[in-house]
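User: Hey, quick favor. My workstation is busy. Could you predict this chain's structure for me?
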Amino acid sequence: MTLPNVEPQSLLAFESAEIQQAVGQLRSRLTSGQRLLLGVAGSPGSGKSTFSACLADALGPDTALVVPMDGFHLGNAIIDGTPLRLRKGAPDTFDVGGYLSLLQRLARRDEDVVYAPDFRRTIDEPVAASLAIPAAIPIIITEGNYLLNDDPRWQQVRAQLDEVWFIDTPHELRLARLVGRHMLYGMDRAAAEAWANGPDAANARLIEATRPSADRIIPWR
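Assistant: No problem, here it is.
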């Protein structure tokens, strides 16, 4: 299989027998002819996006597409000047209802194409109708922090998903990735470390508490 440009450690993890078994079992579920919605959950910096991209690539472009939850971040015009700005990435800084509506449309599979928003880190904003999901695609991979959150609104999201896999990444590696990501997109090191150990850490504690609800734990580096 051809994999996207990711860290060598991630490629090695993806070749593990455990992950290959998970992919094989996912493929076997396609025999029903029904569309599958797979959730990929995990804490900030755990590698959800990289894993999801690897998985979609392994399954093939005619089989799987990734639709990230991050497209439903509230826009900066909504949160700037409010306490939400200091907690961007927390559960209440997402449009949960909009995300749920998208998943319901994808599950019904009664439209030729569904258009979904994506999140652009370069501008720190969601961009509407950036992803096209044809009805022919049988597996939709949606990745995000709060797919297993116990709030009733997020539980409605969980109800739309056939399975949710939880990405398990060592804490120090996850923290280093977060700091590097924040610096890449404009923060100095002090600000990046403060955000990673502040809002990101608070969100990670919420997310890690939901791990026991996952259908499968995926070790990932």
